Amino acid sequence: MAILTACNSTQSIFKQGVRKFDNGEYSLAIKDLQTAVTAGYELGRANYLIAESFRMSNRFELAVPYYQKALENGITNPEAPFNYAFALKAAGKYAEAAAQLEKYIASNPTNKVATEKANRELYTLKAIEIIQQKKTFYLVKNLDKLNTSGAEFSPFVKDEDLIFAATRKATLYKNNGMPMTGIYKVKLAENYDETGGEPEVFSPALFLEGVNEANVTFTKDGKTVVFARGNTGKKKGAADVDLYLSRFASNKWTEPRLIPVSDSAAWDGSPAFSRDGRTLYFCSNRPGGVGGIDIYRANMDASGRFSKPVNMGKDINTPGDEMFPYVGPDAKLYFASDGHPGLGKLDLFVATRSQGVITIENLGAPINSRFDDFGLVYADEEMKYGFFSSNREGGKGDDDIYTFEDESVGLDSNQIAELEKLPLDDPRRRTVGKPEPPKIVNYYLAGTVASNETPAALLDSVIVKIFEISADSLVGQGVSTGGGVFGTFPLEEGKDYSLLVEKRGYITKREPFTMAGKAIPQIFRKKLTMDTTFYVALKLDRLSLNKTFVLENIYYDLNKFNIRPDAAVELDKLVQILNDNPTVNIELSSHTDARDTDAYNKKLSQNRAQSAVDYIASKGIARERMVAKGYGETQLVIKDAKTEEEHQKNRRTEFTILSY
């Protein structure tokens, strides 16, 4: 009696698992069917339904051992070898997959459809090696600051946001036992692969508990969104998966409405607008298609009405599944497919039309893998950066979002050839085709201060300030040490500076310093960053009564005493000295040579001295601080001068310190 009761109980659990399988509640079905397998009940069929549950919930690798056990236990379903082969292919076991396909063909010798299907898969397996050898230049990185142990997929870039689908709702989806999907958003990081953080719901209008929502697409103006909603667990009507439209009005998204391209009896999803927003691409498993899930298109007019959907045809669609269409910045159609030759399950492809002929190209590794790779979008018009979804090994959870960078964008053929020679992990790949980063030189100024006498003495406690002339701003200041050393002051390429040097008992002076022409050319910069210091030797004159200084290069026209422009430049230097030494009073004297009469030279020199004082006074120096004195030829430096050079030394302008 106990044995009979146990058998009845196992049979009941098995039937319960079958019902859940038929209802699409695959995760729940697996638990009941595994109980039946453990009890040894209906091993062929129970193992097969477990394998099919894993396949239907997109867990192919988990299905492999159950297909094997089902076949070992005599499952008679004619599709079992084919489905087993597909799971083996998804698991990367290509030789074993080919063997199962050969068995499938042998067991269906008169079934043309089955034979064609199996031969297509055999062709795909043979193409894998070619796809693996394809040269690509993609750098792929998991968006680990966003992805979780759940599923994040179907990214879309809108303005400064990354919009995506994620399994974060409170309601569990019976198909796979995971939370239902909703539509979320996060801010894009400046470096796309740093995007992450806690997402927020994209819009309350597009967030409904108890259903799955995913796959947004927007018109060009960003004010119309179409997305997929459904998967409640029911099988008929709008409660399955259909396409909905919402518009942005009055600063919010309107209540979504079902759009007529949807077929209430079919699965419709993965919408994608064309670049101009006039064509909507989407996927559907409606009757009359080429394969399982096909890509369709429908036109949308200015009023938002859609035309009748049209299948994209056999150039795009295959007897397998084509999903997740996307129109790139290059106006080409990108999509995922398990029907075109690929590395595993869903691979990413691009369709190119040229002279009426459509060519399908597999994007290759590392964007594609033996797992599901889908939902590609570009983040920039140059098509250098983008995002896609994958459930590949090494991720954080179920489906994850990945970033990619196409290193070949912007490179010429020679640079691409250089890139091909470098391993994927070689840091030099990042510099190919890019201008060499500028090598930075940090410039500094330092120096010494000494007395302007013989022998010279190095001076301590000298205050040194440095000003940037164009901005009239203080760059730095310091005090000389016991060795007369000062510094260090930062300098910038091409700028002009003035050093203000002060010490009690000495004449405060300014010393120019320019960086013009002093920058080290890039070719001679051996490091990314280097330091270079310029040194100056400054001298200060003691404040001494009756000490006389010659003003160089003060010239006058013959027999004239007006201030020439070139003389004004030199007198401006004296103006600066008097401004920097406000307690100093001077005599400004003018001297002539001996080539005219004493009286004439005396008068001429006095006029020249007075003209100089008048000029300096016009610059704001008080007249009472200056005395004009013309000495004529009474204080010749060279008596009996004969050459022009000797006469020139006698013609001079000087100033003498009268008080301080």
TrEMBL record:
Q: Which InterPro entries match?
A: 6-blade_b-propeller_TolB-like, Bact_OuterMem_StrucFunc, OMP_bac, OmpA-like, OmpA-like_sf, TPR-like_helical_dom_sf, WD40
Q: According to its UniProt record, where is this protein located?
A: Cell outer membrane
Q: Its GO CC terms?
A: cell outer membrane
Q: Which residues form the OmpA-like domain?
A: 543-660
* Protein name as catalogued: Flagellar motor protein MotB
- Note the SUPFAM superfamilies from the entry: DPP6 N-terminal domain-like, OmpA-like, TPR-like
- Report which superkingdom the organism of origin falls in: Bacteria
Gene3D superfamilies documented for this protein: OmpA-like domain, Tetratricopeptide repeat domain, TolB, C-terminal domain
| PROSITE patterns (alphabetical) | OMPA_2 (PS51123)
